[in-house]
Each structure stands twice: as structure tokens, then as C-alpha cells.
Specification:
Elements (H helix, E strand, L loop, with lengths): L2 H28 L5 H5 L5 H8 L1 E6 L2 E2 L3 E3 L6 E2 L1 H13 L2 E6 L5 H6 L5 E2 L7 H6 E3 L4 E3 L1 E6 L9 H4 L5 E4 L4 H9 L4 E4 L6 H7 L4 E5 H10 L3 E2 L10 E3 L2 E3 L3 H16 L2 H9 L2
The structure holds prephenic acid (PRE).
Prephenic acid (PRE) binds next to helix 8 and strand 12.
Protein name: Cyclohexadienyl dehydratase
Pfam families: SBP_bac_3 (PF00497)
Keywords: Signal
Amino acid sequence: MKRTDNNWLTFVLSFILLVGLLVSGTAAMSAEPKKGPEVYGQVESRLDAIMKNGYIRVGTTGDYKPFSYLNPTTGEYEGHDIDLAKKLADDLGVKVVFVKTTWPTLMDDLLADKYDIAMGGITRTLERAKKAQLSHPYINFGKSPLIRMADKDKYKSLADIDQPNVKIGVNPGGTNEKFVRANLKNAQIIVFEKNLEIPGKVASGEVDVMITDSIEAKSYAKEDQRLYAPLTDQTFTKSQMGFLMPRGDFVFGNWVNVWMEEMTLKGDLEKITNKWMD
Ligand SMILES: O=C(O)C(=O)C[C@]1(C(=O)O)C=C[C@@H](O)C=C1
């Protein structure tokens, strides 16, 4: 091929390319701008349903002070996480509907869609995270004992507690029971259905020790002079609390986490925490 043929071919190809670019550019400019959902594919979320319905269903046990307590006199839920649930609903612009659950049925009730979120002193665990979505943490704590004031010098370690003559009171289905079964091999373990009654059983001498969370132990010791909460600054475990939500709904989970970060940033979380804890 001659040099002039090559030049001619290059000219024709460049011309075709230029015309192509101009045509597609004009088409792109004249097309209607697409709306978000058409471009990105809006994900259906529980968040939309909550806002459409005008209420959020919050699962809670009502047996764990100072996080979630069903006051028998008023019939109302109260506590740290109850205040958080009310604020969450407020910030969503919806009402809050509390749904009673229990520690042994906490996960099944969530999976059966009895509530949108569970709140009330729920420990973040790797086991729970396999079945559900856990929010960012909002409190650090650990397991520790609640004992009688009279036994103040008797129980100074887990080994002091794990003796055949020591009776341990524990509620079923939560992380307390898991801890007790895994770590106390010699002491007598007595399971009580009603968690709220165990501190009274320690005070009266029916059992010697309640194994629970450091924050709860401190709260009972403050409420009842007969009780004492040792080792709360050297807890047997290290854990964090979070909220439990159905798995796979990124939009809802993300909203809750962003809300928690805003609560922290603006000092609202601290205000609620100071109201319920020392
Ligand atoms: O399972 C959990 O996530 C809890 O933190 C609940 C739990 C428990 O461990 O059993 C914590 C302390 C209360 O005394 C009762 C319930």
C-alpha cells in the first residue's frame, strides 16, 4: 500500500470515530436525567415499612435493671434501653410498641418477626451474629458476682465462688447461664425463671451468689443495703452491648448505627447513661 493510501484510510477512520462520538454525546446530553432508584436499584427495607406503618416494634425482656424493667405498679417499661428505644422512635418520627420477649426466646422471636429490633442489655456475641445483625456497641461490661454485704470478705475471686458449698442463682437462656455452666464446675447451680427475683434470694440467703453483669450487680447493690457487688472493676469477662436486628437488611442496620453515632456525638447517649448509671 502506498503512503497516500494510508493517510486516506486514517482520515476516513478518524472521521467515522468523530461522528460516532458526537452522536453518542448529543444523545447522552438530551436523555432525561434518571432518578436514583432507576439508576442504583433502591433496596426494599424494614426501615420503609416502619415509617409507612408509623410504629417500630421493640422486643425487650423487662427483667434486666437498669436496662429494661417492666414496672409492675405502672405496667410500663422503664430503663436505659427503654429511653433509647423511645428516642429511636422519636428520631424516626414513629411510635414505639414494646413487645415482651424472654432471654431463651430472644432470637426465635426475632426470627419469627415478632419485632423489628430487640433492645434491653443484649450482649453482642459471635453466636448471635451468625443469626442476626448486631448494632455497634454502646456499653462495655463484664460478668461479676452479686453477694451479701455480710460475705464481703468471703468471695474475692472466681475460685472462692466455685466451691461445693456455694449456691449460685442464675436466670436461664442468656449469657449469665452460659458463663456459669462453662466456668463453675464445683458450685451448686440453681436456675430461677424470674431474673428480677434472684437478688432478693441472695439477700435472704436462699442462694449465696448471683452471677450477672457488672452494671446490674452495681445497680442492685445500690438499691439494697444487704447486697454487695465485688470485682466490678476486674470482671470475669469482657463484653459489649448492642441491639439485635434481623439479618440481611443493610439499610435498616445502617440507619440504626448512624443514629447511634449521632446520639454519641451530640451527647444524648451520655445523658441517658448518666440518668441510669453511676
Ligand atoms: O443474654 C444476654 O445478652 C444478657 O445480657 C442477658 C442476661 C444474661 O446474661 O442472662 C444478663 C444479665 C441479666 O441478669 C439477665 C440476662
